[in-house]
């Protein structure tokens, strides 16, 4: 076994590798960019080396910096994690040339599967079933369009050199082929420095099932069963489970043996994943092989009881695999959900910002959380916006699904938008509970699973008001302590009046709705900074309410009428400077957000109802394409700007019918979040 390894990655996978290495008595070296100087993986490692600026192309993707870091710290091996250089044959060769072990497959195996087109040819020779398609070298648009016609629409355009949904487009009709091809090639070029694509038949209602394979240097190659990764958005996985629902023993064996054949065909060593697409009839076809550990590997670990990172380290050190195929068995069922900083209601647009509050399910016998961030860390535009992976396991699928639902109710994030509510709605959906999954699940059930902007309910308004009253009392105590006369009655915040009952009005905004909540204080209210006792009036109703602070994390025990509950309300400053209060209570996944309306801080334009016309950048990024000209008339929903951010393209659409007055940026320009991109004049009603 190695004495010291360097982890050439970041985030949750870096933390995962460091944790396993520590258990094995192996010392670790972390690497970090400017953006990750205070990251969790840096704090966990025995040593850490700075490798450059925040953009990955200037830090995590620079092989020379990684090898130099390993050399100067005395690391014997490099674990690449997943993403970045994990599937880069040149990096694996450079490691070998430097006398450093690359914890992954041989360079030849990476190259064999690095090109999807070449991989298809190899799999065809190995008699692994393939989806009908074109995998040739001629990349002329005219030929690709003819091949699409031959295959028959709908077709899938897919980047040959990469994965993760980047450089991928589903094309329904010939009229959309040219534009989709150009977009896929641009995205592939940006993500993988290679715009080569292949075209395949797009199966309707397919399932994405992948098989975990593992091989050592002693000739043993086996499979650790399958994972169903069909729940996807934008061709990227969101929920994975193992084993696949409805899988028969015969089909599992056939897919496992096909995966092993694929691995043996390229002389594979280490952890890898062979991905198949399956149709409702039970037929399955090879899609690609990922020559690395996958993000979703924890579900395989949960049902087999094995640590795949430990297997990687042992195999890379020349050891034999610890088990044989016959000794492997499936125990129970596992789910993994990917908690992303993104807004599902805005086509899954990534969200950046500081994690003001992060509370994840506690690690227990049935629940595991893999994350690379903590409260106070930031989600930046430089890397993937995944916050954490939440993994659950139990004796069968139904029991595991109950665990998943509860884990999502315990998940709290404030500071960025997340997909928590989406994940919870999928987990609660009857079709998902029945195992009726395929890659079109989210789009088909969009109305039921994509969260809609809804006004906060009465309970959330009451709890936010109690939180604000507690906050006021603490603020008043702090002011009093700093004043010359701490006992002065002017420091009181109980709404005291000389000739009337004390009360305060607190104004909230939820969506387009504004509500005033009146708090009338009870005579016995003792003005304790950790308690409040009042009667609340909202929407014509009244209720007795009280709150007792439970800690410093925004939690308090609330009584609303006859109901007693534990709640947590987190206040944070939004990107526009407003004050938001996020209410977590009663197990509503994602919480409910209310905006505190301060009538002393309303801009003249907002007060007059004036809003400028145009498009602004929803996040920092690079302008890839400007699809309109100054003076051009456009229709609502028409593509205007293509913005690249977090390695994905985002098409910004015209907000209404109107005229483009002026475009403010050109293709290639970098833009900050909130930048005005286009001046737009709406058409007269």
Defining traits:
eight-stranded antiparallel β-barrel; D-amino Acid Aminotransferase, Chain A, domain 1; alpha+beta; eight-stranded antiparallel beta sheet; Dna Ligase, domain 1; globular; 685 residues; Rossmann fold
Mind sketching the topology for me?
Layout: E1 4-7, H1 11-23, E2 27-33, H2 40-44, E3 47-52, H3 63-73, E4 77-79, H4 89-97, E5 101-102, H5 107-114, H6 116-125, E6 133-134, H7 141-151, E7 155-159, E8 168-171, H8 177-192, E9 197-201, E10 207-215, E11 221-233, E12 236-242, H9 249-265, E13 270-278, E14 284-290, H10 297-304, H11 308-316, E15 333-340, E16 342-343, E17 349-350, E18 353-354, E19 357-359, E20 367-371, E21 378-379, E22 386-394, H12 397-409, E23 412-414, H13 420-428, H14 430-433, H15 441-444, H16 446-449, H17 458-482, E24 503-510, E25 513-521, E26 531-538, E27 541-549, E28 555-560, E29 563-573, E30 579-584, E31 592-596, H18 604-607, E32 614-616, E33 621-626, E34 633-634, E35 639-645, E36 648-653, E37 658-663, E38 670-671, E39 676-682
Parallel strand pairs: 1-2, 1-4, 2-3, 4-5
Antiparallel strand pairs: 6-9, 7-8, 7-9, 10-11, 10-13, 11-12, 12-15, 13-14, 15-22, 16-17, 18-21, 19-23, 20-22, 24-25, 24-31, 25-26, 26-27, 27-28, 28-29, 29-30, 30-31, 32-39, 33-35, 33-38, 34-37, 35-36, 37-39
Instruction: Give the strand content.
Output: 25-35%
Do you know the CATH architecture of the largest domain?
2-Layer Sandwich
In CATH, the homologous superfamily of the largest domain goes by the name ATP-grasp fold, B domain
Provide the low-confidence segments as ranges.
Answer: 600-612
Radius of gyration: 28 Å
Number of domains: 5
Q: What gross morphology would you assign?
A: globular
Report helical residue fraction. Answer: 25-40%
Q: Count the E strands.
A: 39
């Amino acid at each position: 076994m190695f004495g010291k390894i360097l982890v050439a990655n970041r985030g949750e996978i870096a933390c995962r590798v460091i944790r396993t290495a520590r258990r094995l008595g192996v010392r670790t070296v972390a690497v970090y960019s400017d953006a990750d100087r205070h990251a969790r993986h840096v704090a966990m490692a025995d040593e850490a080396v700075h490798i450059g600026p925040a953009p990955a192309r200037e830090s995590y993707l620079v092989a020379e910096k990684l090898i130099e870091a390993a050399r100067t710290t005395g690391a014997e091996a490099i674990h690449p994690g997943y993403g970045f250089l994990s599937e880069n044959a040149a990096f694996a060769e450079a490691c070998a040339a430097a006398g450093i072990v690359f914890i992954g497959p041989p360079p030849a195996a990476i190259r064999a599967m690095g090109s999807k087109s070449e991989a298809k040819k190899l799999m065809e020779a190995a008699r692994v079933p393939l989806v009908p398609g074109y995998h040739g070298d001629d990349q002329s648009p005219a030929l690709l369009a003819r091949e699409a016609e031959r295959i028959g629409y709908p077709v899938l355009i897919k980047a040959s050199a990469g994965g993760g949904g980047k450089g991928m487009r589903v094309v329904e009709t010939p009229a959309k082929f040219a534009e989709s091809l150009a977009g896929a090639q641009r995205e592939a070029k940006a993500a993988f420095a290679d715009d080569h694509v292949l075209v395949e038949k797009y199966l309707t209602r397919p399932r994405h099932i992948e098989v975990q394979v593992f091989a050592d240097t002693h000739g043993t190659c086996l499979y650790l069963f399958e994972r169903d990764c069909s729940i996807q958005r934008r061709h990227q996985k969101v929920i994975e489970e193992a084993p696949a629902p409805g899988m028969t023993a015969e089909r599992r064996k056939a897919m496992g043996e096909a995966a092993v054949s694929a691995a043996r065909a390229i002389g594979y060593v280490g952890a890898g994943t062979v991905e198949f697409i399956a149709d409702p009839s039970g037929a399955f076809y090879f899609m690609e092989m990922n020559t690395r550990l996958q993000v979703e590997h924890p579900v395989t670990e949960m049902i087999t009881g094995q640590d795949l990172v430990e297997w990687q380290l042992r195999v890379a050190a020349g050891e034999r695999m610890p088990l044989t195929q016959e000794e492997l068995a499936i125990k129970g069922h596992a789910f993994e959900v990917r908690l992303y900083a993104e807004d599902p209601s805005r086509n899954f647009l990534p969200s950046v910002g500081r994690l003001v509050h992060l509370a994840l399910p506690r690690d227990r016998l049935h629940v595991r959380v893999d994350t690379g961030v903590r409260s106070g860390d930031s989600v930046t535009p430089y890397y993937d916006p995944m916050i954490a992976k939440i993994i659950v396991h139990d004796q069968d699928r139904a029991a595991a699904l109950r665990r998943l639902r509860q884990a999502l109710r315990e998940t709290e994030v404030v500071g960025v938008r997340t997909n928590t509510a989406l994940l919870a709605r999928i987990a609660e959906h009857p079709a998902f509970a029945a195992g009726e999954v395929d890659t079109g699940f989210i789009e088909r059930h969009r109305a039921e699973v994509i969260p809609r902007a809804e006004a906060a309910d009465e309970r959330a308004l009451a709890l936010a008001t109690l939180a604000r009253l507690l906050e006021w009392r603490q603020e008043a105590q702090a002011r009093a302590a700093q004043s010359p006369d701490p006992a002065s009655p002017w420091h009181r915040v109980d709404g005291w009046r000389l000739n009337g009952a004390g009360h305060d009005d607190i104004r909230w905004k939820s969506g387009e709705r504004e509500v005033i909540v009146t708090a009338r204080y009870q005579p016995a209210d003792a003005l304790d900074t950790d308690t409040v006792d009042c009667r609340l009036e909202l929407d014509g109703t009244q209720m007795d309410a009280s709150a007792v602070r439970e800690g410093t994390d925004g939690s308090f025990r609330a009584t609303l009428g006859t109901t007693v509950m534990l709640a947590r309300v987190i206040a944070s400053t939004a990107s526009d400077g407003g004050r938001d209060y996020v209410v977590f209570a009663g197990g509503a996944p994602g919480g409910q957000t209310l905006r505190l309306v301060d009538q002393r801080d309303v801009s003249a334009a907002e007060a007059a109802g004036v809003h400028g016309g145009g498009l602004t950048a929803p996040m920092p990024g690079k302008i890839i394409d400007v699809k309109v000209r100054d003076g051009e008339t456009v229709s609502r929903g028409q593509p205007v700007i293509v913005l690249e951010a977090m390695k994905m393209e985002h098409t910004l659409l015209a907000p209404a019918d109107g005229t483009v007055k002026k475009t403010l940026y050109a293709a290639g320009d970098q833009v900050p979040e909130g930048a005005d991109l286009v001046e737009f004049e709406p058409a007269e009603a």
